Queue: 2 jobs
Job 1
Amino acid sequence: MSTDKPEDLPSEEELGQMSRDELVKLGSKLDGVELVEYPDPWPVKGTRAEKRAERQVAFWFALSGIAGLAFVVAFIWWPARYVAPDQDGYLMYSLYTPVIGVTLGVAILGIGIGVLNYTRKFVPHEIAVQQRHDGGSSEIDKATILANLADAGNRSTIARRPMIKRSLAFGGGVLGLALTAVPLGGLLRNPHAQSDNKDGLLHTPWQHTKKDEKVFLRRVTGDNDELSLVRPEDLDGGAMETVFPYREGDTHEDWVKMLKRGDSPVMLIRLRPHDAARVIKHEGQEDFNYGDYYAYTKICSHVGCPTSLFESRSNRILCPCHQSQFDALQYAKPVFGPATRKLAQLPIAVDEETGYFISTGDFIEPIGPAYWERKS
Ligand code: FES
C-alpha cells in the first residue's frame, strides 16, 4: 500500500458500496498509479471495422478448433502401422507424422494468434505509471485489483461478443481435447488386441511355435526379397549386427510383417576374445550365448527406444533417446542413465546342419519397458 494517509481510506462498509469504476480509481490512487491514457478501443460501437476485427479473431479460434479436431481424428484413426515402401498404403503411413504434427501445430498457432489479435484489438491499451511498494497486499489492494481485472474484462467487451466467445470455446475446448488425447490414447487401446496370443507382451516372434522349429537370425539388406542369414564367421570381434527372426518357408509378406513388429529386432554382438573372457553371465542364462556371440533385444528397457549403438571399446550398448548405457560384458545390465532393467537376452546357437545362427527359444523375460502386468 503506498498511501501515507491511512485516515483517508474508506471503511470496509464504504468499500462494499463502491462501484467498480470507483474501486478502479481508488486502486490507482492508492497504488500511486497515474492513468496517462485509458482509451476505449472502439468508442463507436458496431462499426464495420469492429465487426471485421471480431471476425478475424473468431476465424483463428475456429481454425484452431478444426485443426484440433483433425488432430484427434488423425491421431486415433490414421493408419500409423509400418508399411514397407514397396507396399500399398505406404504413402498414407508416411504421412502420419506430418499430419499429426501440422494439425496440432495449427491448433496451437490458431489459439495463439487469436488471443494475440483479441488483445491487440479489443483490450484497452492504457498507459499507466505506478510506484513500487514493499510488503504484502492489504484487503483494499486485493479488492481494488479484482475490480481492475473485472474492469479490464468488461472494457475488452468480451461479454457482448458471442462469436468470439463461442469460437474461443470451440478452439480452446478442442485443443484441450487434442492434448488430452495424446496421453489417454495409449491407455484406451488394448495392448493385447493385435497379439497372436493372450500373453502377447510376454512373447515375441522368436517364440517357437512347434517342436524342433528352427528360427534363424536374418539380417536386413534393404531388399526384402533377398534372404541373408547370419553365420559366426560373418562378424569380426567387436562387431554388432541387427537381426530379425526367420523361419523356413517364410514368404515376402511374412518378412515384411516381421519387420513391422517392434518386439522382433535383436542385436547380435561378437565380443573380442579378451573381452569375452571377462563376461559375467546372468543366473539361469549361462548357456544363452554362443561362444563370443551374445544376442540382446534392441528394445530399451527404459521407454522402448531402439538401443542401436554398440561401442566396442567400452563394450557398452547405448540408447540414444535418454542416454542409458548397458554393459555387454554383464548380461546388458544398465550402468548409466534412466533405464533400471537389463536388456533381455535371446538364447542362440548355431544350426549344425546349415551353420547359421538360430535362436533356441524366446526371451525368458518381457522385453522393453514396464507395463502394468509385468512382474519383473
Ligand atoms: Fe532408452 Fe530412454 S528409451 S534411455
Job 2
Amino acid sequence: MPDNSSVAFLGLGHMGGPMALNLVRAGYRVAGFDVVPAAMDAAQAQGVAVAASAAEAVAGADVVLTMFRSGQEVLDAYRGRAGHAGQPGLLAATQPGTMFLDCSTINVDEAREASRLAIEAGHRSVDAPVSGGVVGAEAGTLTFMAGGEVEDFEAVRPLLEVMGKRVVHCGGHGAGQAAKICNNMILGVSMIAVSEAFVLGEKLGLTHQALFDVASAASGQCWALTTNCPVPGPVPTSPANRDYQPGFAAALMAKDLNLAVNALDSTGVAGQMGALAARIYDRFAAEGGAGRDFSAIITDIRGASERQGGDRPAGEDAEAERPAGHRATTAHDDGSPE
Ligand code: NAD
C-alpha cells in the first residue's frame, strides 16, 4: 500500500489514536472513526481527520484498519449489527478488493472467521495484532505479528512499518493472533515462576541480587527475569522500581491468557500452566491489580505467603479443573498501557 493510500481507521482508543496519527504523519490519507465521540475529538485534536460515520470513513478506502477491544466488536462491525447506531456492515459498505486489516487482539477462531467473512465478500484480509503498548503506538515502535496470504501481507507491510519497528509474517489467517497469544502465554507463566522463585529465595535468605546474578546467567534466564524483573534493584528500568506502574497491565495479561485458554480448549491441547496462569491473573486483576504492571503478581504471592505460611489464594490449586466452556471476554480494560 503506497503512502498515499486511503485508510479508514476505526477504533481511535489508547492504541488506535496514536497509530492513526503516525499514518497521517507518514502521508497516508486517513479517515478516522470511533463510536465514542470523545475518542474522535481526541484524535481530531491531534490532527487525524475524522468521519461522521463508519460508512463515511470506509467509502473509497483502500484499507479498513480496525483496532477494537474484542473479536465480537470486530465481527459485529464487519457484518453490521442491528441497533449499532449509524453503522452498516463494513464488508458491505466497501468496494470489492478492499484490504481488511485487523490489529485488535482477539481469539484465533474469531480472527479466522473475520478473514473468512472478508474474503467471502470479495475483500482481502490480514490479522496483525501488536505488542509494545501505548508507548510503542505513540513512538511507532510496535511489533506486528501478521497472518494472511503472503501477497496481502506484503501489501500492508509498508503501512505496518510506519506504525511499528518489527513486522513478522507468521503464516496464514489467524497466525498473527496465534503467535501473540503463544508468546504471551510463555510470558504470563514465566512471570509467575520468576516471582515465586524470588519469594522462595526471600524465605530461604537469598538476596534478590544473588538470585538474579545466578539465574540471569543460568538456565532460569528469561525476559520476565532479565528485562521485567519483578523485584526492584537488579534491573533498574523494570516496573518494580516504580511501584509497578505499567508496563504491561495485569488486565491485559489476563485478557491474553484467556485468549490462550480458549485456543487450548479449541485445539484440545492439554496445557495446564497457561490455564492456571489465566486464573491467577484473572483473580489478581479482579482484586485491584488490573492497572498494575503484571510483574506486581509477586506482591500477591508474597502477601499470601505472609498471611498464612502456605495457604494459597483461590485459583492457584494446580489440581483444579479449568471451568467448563471458559471463554475470554475479550473486552478489557482500564486502558492501561502494555
Ligand atoms: P481502547 O478501548 O482504548 O480502544 C478501542 C476503541 O475501539 C474504543 O475507543 C471503542 O470505542 C472503539 N470501537 C469499538 N467498536 C467500534 C466500532 N464498531 N467502530 C468504531 N470504533 C469502535 O483499547 P486499546 O487499549 O486501544 O486496545 C485496542 C486493542 O489493542 C485491544 O484488542 C487490546 O487488547 C490490544 N492491545 C492493547 C494494548 C494496550 O497497551 N492498550 C497493547 C497491545 C495490544
